[in-house]
Specification:
Length: 389
């Protein structure tokens, strides 16, 4: 467990131009916002990746992944994005969220916008093969885990919506180059989705310079809270970071026992199916944790507990390797719960304390690394595992 105090702050914008510069060990990143409905410092900070392909990482303050966030703030973000969503899109509308970071964001956007389209269907990409029919594969070239899988929905009626989709909604936490969206579009069209007429990209922050609009063969509408540009000046004298072995897309030794209600096998209705028996005290300080791609059901649980009067923040474990410092104040390291034997991490939790921690899993309780449980036990007198029997 690593904890670091960090004093970096955002520069204040002048003359309504929001510009932010961050010096990292490997270089300097400059971000300039050209349009937005939020200030830079409320949406993200910067961290340093342990990844030789891209040295910097936009760390969202509203996503509930690397920085724990109140569920009500996350819900507000879903609603803000929904308010910017285009009208009169042709249906069926296929929504796809990007694993692992944006699967929860995507489900939230889907829930807030599906009433605006005809025949909506929600899918997420995954790095965990499941029992189903593979629709396509695509690459996220800069990522710590490059290979994504997308499956056909399990239900025939939802599969039909995917086959006939006329609108494609692609959702990620941020866009830097637009390459991942374009790779996915190519893969879907190559898999036989020939009826797509319109694309909508949804991100919290879009730094791609309208790359998807310029390069897509189909019309594109962009939805984001902030858009702008970035410039990276590498320090050629900096050592090249060594990335842990997390580039794995495979079925682990431990089975997923959840109900696949997060989007891997398609859905159009959303409801919480874990933690029904959990009750809280008013004002109880609670941390709810998702695990890897399993974040949507844990978020719905966290949202319910907050609405019932608890002081709740939501975060998640991840395989994304990030250095301690800047946006990352503390790091926990442990092994994944899918039996893949890869490093997992929990950021910005170890320097805090809670009355209660709820760790949510789609794998059996015995799959948790004891090293994670020991670290969580230092932060709270009550650590519970929530999941499926």
């Amino acid at each position: 467990m690593t904890v670091l105090n960090d004093t970096d702050v955002y520069e204040k914008p002048a003359h309504n131009q929001q510009t932010y510069q961050k010096k990292l060990n490997s270089g300097t990143l400059t971000v300039t916002a050209s349009r937005g409905i939020a200030s830079l410092e409320t949406l993200f900070d910067i961290a340093e990746r342990r990844n030789p392909k891209r040295a910097f990482l936009f760390v969202s303050k509203v996503l509930g992944r690397h920085i724990p966030v109140k569920p009500s703030i996350m819900r507000s973000v879903y609603q803000q994005l929904a308010g910017r969503f285009p009208a009169h899109l042709p249906g069926p509308a296929l929504y796809i969220g990007m694993a692992e970071t944006a699967v929860g964001l995507a489900a939230g956007v889907f829930q807030e916008t599906k009433h605006k389209v005809n025949e909506p269907v929600f899918l997420t990409s995954t790095r965990h093969p499941v029992d189903g029919d593979l629709l396509c594969e695509f690459k996220e070239n800069h990522s710590h885990a490059t290979d994504h899988l997308i499956y056909w929905p399990a239900e025939a009626r939802l599969r039909q919506r995917v086959s006939n989709a006329r609108t494609l909604v692609l959702i990620d936490d941020e866009a830097t180059t637009g390459n991942t969206f374009l790779n996915l579009l190519d893969a879907l069209r190559g898999a036989g989705l020939e009826h797509i007429e319109q694309i909508v990209t949804v991100t919290l922050t879009d730094w791609s310079g309208k790359s998807v609009v310029k390069r897509s063969p189909l019309p594109v509408s962009e939805v984001s809270l902030i858009e702008g540009s970035w410039q990276w000046e590498a320090d050629i004298s900096a050592p090249v970071p060594v990335m842990p072995q997390v580039n794995v897309t495979a079925r682990g030794k431990i089975n997923i026992i959840g109900q696949q209600s997060g989007g891997r096998l398609g859905l159009d209705e959303i409801q919480c199916d874990i933690g029904a028996a959990i009750n809280i005290r008013a004002g109880e300080n609670v941390l709810v944790l998702g695990s890897g791609e399993f974040v949507w059901q844990p978020f719905l649980l966290a949202e319910r507990l907050e609405q019932e009067g608890a002081s709740v923040v939501f975060g998640s474990t991840t395989r994304s390797p990030i250095s301690c410092g800047h946006a990352i104040q503390s790091v926990m390291a442990f092994t994944d719960n899918y039996g893949l034997g890869i490093p997992n991490f929990l950021y910005n939790v170890a320097h805090q304390t809670f009355d209660r921690i709820l760790l949510c899993l789609e794998t059996p309780k015995m799959s948790v690394d004891p090293a994670l449980m020991a670290q969580l036990a230092r932060l709270s007198p009550v650590v519970e595992i929530v999941g499926y029997d």
